[in-house]
Amino acid sequence: MAKIISYLRLKNMTMLQSFIALNCVYLVAVLTAIVFEFEWADRIRRRFADHPSGNDWVLTAQIIAMLLTIGVGLVLMASLFYKLKLKKPLEILMSASEKISANDLGFQVSYDSRDEMSDLCRAFEKMRSQLESNFKALWRSAEERNQISAIFAHDLRTPLSIMKGYFEFINSYLPQKKISEEKLLDTIKTMESHILRMERYVEAMSSIQKLDDIPINKQEIEIDTLIALLDDGASRIADLRGKTYDSCRNADSTSLFVDLDLVMQVFENMIANGVRYAFSQVKVDYLVRNGFFSITVTDDGPGFSNEGLLKAVLPFYRGEAPEANEHHGLGLYTSKTLCEKHQGGLQVANSSRGGGKVTVSFLCRVDK
Fold it and tell me: Which EC numbers does the record give (predicted)?
């Protein structure tokens, strides 16, 4: 029996094929047994033909033997089918479900077969992999939010301390009239500027919290149209700062499938950063290859410091530019987050000529 089953190679069969094959084996085995039982009953019947009590009981014994043969055969075939086709994959799936319930996703679901249970195991592995990916993304998001909250609390501490100092100053000297009206007005004006600064800071913090809620709305657009829109906006930003602007492209397609508003928002952040640090020129390179649309913005400024290369994409990092206090340091962080929502990324580096270089990428559908 084992050799017959091995010959049939049930692991390479579907559930239906295996069921049919085992039933064929079952029928052959049962019919063979029944044939032998008929011969046995015939011999017994002849042997007790002249017996005083007769041989009528032989028919009853034969029917019982046939029913037992059929029943035992069914049990054996069902057990064999379960053992060969169901037991191992069910054990694998049960073990996997217990690990997932315990929040343990560091395993793989693998079952070497070609039947439906193998397909089910592969689907389960795909689900586990997606759960693991989502869990890691959620963990990173929570870590980033904790980091942002820590930075937010740290950066608010300074203006709050200043405000507290001014309040104590006014509380101490105003009742005693030891402060002039001019000094009092200057102090109140300074306090107002710090309040406005904290309001802007809170608004910036609120905008970060809303990034995860931004939907991705992709649309098909001609590469020439997209680059024309980007170049027009970049040249205007550069002109306002008195910088020159140049661009070039290398595309293996004529159209893209991207979120236009998201791409333009990221691009404008990159250009604004580039012209802020550039001495005189900003250059942009567009690249469409292997399903990704990449934009590289290079300036001729001092480039990123070693600290900047590590922290440029962190929220509220302002660098060492003279204008650093005029913005909240959210441009590259926002751009990085939006790129990742578009299944791309952002990298910062220094160009071979010494200036800063920022590259972003977006997953797109390319129609050649």
Answer: 2.7.13.3
User: Is 227 in the same domain as 196?
Assistant: no
Distances (CA, A) of 42 to 37, 49, 53, 76, 210: 8, 10, 17, 27, 88
Of 212, 233, 255, which one is at a domain's C-terminal end?
Answer: 212
Q: What is the pLDDT of residues 215-273, one digit of tens each?
A: 778 889 899 888 988 888 888 888 888 899 999 998 878 889 998 888 888 888 888 88
> Based on the structure, what is the number of domains in the chain?
3
Helix, strand or coil, per DSSP, at residue 364:
coil
- End-to-end CA gap in the chain: 58
Residues 10 and 81 in one domain: yes
How far apart are alpha carbons 209 and 358 in whole angstroms?
24
Pairing assessment for the beta strands 244-251 and 281-289 based on DSSP bridges: parallel
Domain assignment of residue 155, given as a range: 139-212
Pair of tokens at residue 320: 């060492």
At 317, which CATH number? Answer: 3.30.565.10
